[in-house]
TrEMBL record:
<protein>
    <recommendedName>
        <fullName>PDZ domain-containing protein</fullName>
    </recommendedName>
</protein>
<keyword id="KW-0378">Hydrolase</keyword>
<dbReference type="InterPro" id="IPR036034">
    <property type="entry name" value="PDZ_sf"/>
</dbReference>
<dbReference type="InterPro" id="IPR001940">
    <property type="entry name" value="Peptidase_S1C"/>
</dbReference>
<dbReference type="InterPro" id="IPR001478">
    <property type="entry name" value="PDZ"/>
</dbReference>
<dbReference type="InterPro" id="IPR009003">
    <property type="entry name" value="Peptidase_S1_PA"/>
</dbReference>
<keyword id="KW-0732">Signal</keyword>
<feature type="signal peptide">
    <location>
        <begin position="1"/>
        <end position="26"/>
    </location>
</feature>
<dbReference type="InterPro" id="IPR051201">
    <property type="entry name" value="Chloro_Bact_Ser_Proteases"/>
</dbReference>
<dbReference type="GO" id="GO:0004252">
    <property type="term" value="F:serine-type endopeptidase activity"/>
</dbReference>
<dbReference type="GO" id="GO:0006508">
    <property type="term" value="P:proteolysis"/>
</dbReference>
<dbReference type="Pfam" id="PF13365">
    <property type="entry name" value="Trypsin_2"/>
</dbReference>
<feature type="domain" description="PDZ">
    <location>
        <begin position="259"/>
        <end position="352"/>
    </location>
</feature>
<dbReference type="Pfam" id="PF13180">
    <property type="entry name" value="PDZ_2"/>
</dbReference>
<keyword id="KW-0645">Protease</keyword>
Length: 364
């Protein structure tokens, strides 16, 4: 009997020795797992499914390499102009289940084709509903149902020093995995007014963050720790082109109001659909043009009034209405005073011949 009692006690202690450490280990693992699921992880999981990659195709006019590496010969015998298609890349995010998407205007500017890739890998053709160059915002639309959407926050309540999470697709079509990338920082400042280093554009009331924003992140969401979108990643200050911790985003309240204006048809500008550069004597000689001053068409927007009347890259505009066009500045000045629905006559040179083209100004 005594032996049986000792044997039972031995089994009992062995049971405790085997089970108690295991229960401690399980609790430690669970604690470790919970500690890894920070607010940033949860916020990224909420928003990432609604973040998209925006791929565009644009046409631009470029010059072939010169025959000689001598400034004198290059001036008179520079390489010929030719048109090429280039790819552009950015990010965006879905704001409605039926497929409305927000991104930057500079991402889709001049685009002939816009493709959207969801984080799950699905691809859609997108239509540009409207843009605001002033705010640098574009509203796109894809045909879909029950799409994942982001929750839009309130950028008026931002606190300097609070978490900021930049989400986007900086590599786009360069990677097979379409899932967005995440970088984290804080809100460094608010209500910043900055002049663009690249374009003649002034950004107002921007949100500053040190979260890494790379070129392909443009148009993606800037998110707070609650998983709500507080801004649209737009540009960085950088000498190298990479992030150095000075990034800027459009406040989401500004974006929401601009989107409402676009969808109501307000705030849209007259639209011709021509991207031009100033003509110079070298270009004129290469094109065999009888004129040496004017605005040469670099690209024609797809679906634009200009495309509708047959404009092509390489056309030279030397007159609009009753005014002469001697440069890109002249063209932009005249175009800025046009109104939607205006009927205008343009004087152009194509293949050395002069033509007149009549066009009705659209809106965008």
């Amino acid at each position: 009997m005594f032996k049986k009692i000792c044997l039972y006690n031995l089994y009992f202690f062995l049971f405790l020795a085997l089970t108690v450490p295991l229960s401690v280990d399980c609790s430690e693992v669970e604690s470790l797992t919970n500690s890894r699921r920070t607010a940033i992880v949860v916020a990224a999981e909420r928003v990432s499914p609604a973040v998209v990659s925006v791929s565009v195709l644009k046409k631009e006019l470029v010059r072939a390499a010169p025959m000689f590496r001598d400034p004198f010969f290059d001036y008179f015998f520079s390489g010929p102009l030719y048109e090429r298609t280039v790819k552009g890349l950015g990010s965006g995010f879905i704001v409605s289940e039926d497929g409305f998407i927000l991104t930057n205007e500079h991402v889709v500017e001049g685009a002939e084709v816009v493709k959207i890739t969801l984080s799950c890998g699905e691809e859609y053709d997108a239509k540009v509903i409207g843009t605001s160059k002033k705010v640098d915002l574009a509203v796109l639309k894809i045909e879909g149902k029950n799409l994942p959407v982001t929750s839009l926050g309130n950028s008026n309540s931002l606190l300097i020093g609070e978490w900021a999470i930049a989400i986007g697709n900086p590599f786009g079509f360069l990677l097979e995995n379409p899932e967005p990338t995440v970088s984290c920082g804080v809100i460094s400042g608010i209500k910043r007014n900055i002049r663009s280093q690249i374009e003649d554009r002034v950004y107002r009331n921007m949100v500053q963050t040190d979260a890494a924003i790379n070129p392909g992140n443009s148009g993606g969401p800037l998110v707070n720790a609650d998983g709500k979108v507080i801004g649209i990643n737009t540009f960085i200050f950088s000498k190298s082109g990479g992030s150095i911790g000075i990034g800027f985003a459009i406040p989401i309240n500004t974006a929401k109001e601009t989107m409402r204006e676009i969808l109501r048809g307000e705030g849209q500008k007259p639209w011709i659909g021509l991207q031009v550069e100033s003509l110079n004597p070298v270009m004129a000689l290469a094109l065999g043009s009888p004129i040496t001053e004017g605005a040469i068409v670099a690209s024609v927007d797809r679906g634009s009034p200009a495309e509708g009347v047959g404009f092509e890259a390489g056309d030279i505009i030397y007159g609009m209405g009753k005014k002469e066009v001697a440069s890109k500045g002249d063209f932009d000045s005249i175009a800025s005073n046009l109104k939607s629905g205006d009927r205008i006559k343009l004087y152009i040179v194509r293949n050395g011949q002069r033509y007149e083209v009549k066009m009705t100004v659209g809106k965008r």
